[in-house]
Design brief:
The chain is built from 2 helices and no strands. It has 51 residues and is mainly alpha-helical. This is Transmembrane protein.
Length: 51
């Protein structure tokens, strides 16, 4: 028991840091995928041929 108490004496932010990093990376990947989707499906303006 005493060993477990000593082990969890690290600040909670250090315990949560790896999870926060993974969440931030996932959010950026989703934003990138969404941005690529928006660019790919955006309507292009009609081009008129001028001779």
């Amino acid at each position: 028991m005493a060993n477990q108490q000593q082990e969890s004496s690290r600040p909670w932010i250090l315990e949560a840091l790896p999870l926060l990093v993974v969440i931030l990376i996932a959010a950026h990947v989703l934003a990138l995928v969404y941005w690529i989707y928006r660019v790919a499906t955006e309507k292009q303006p009609q081009r008129s041929k001028k001779h």
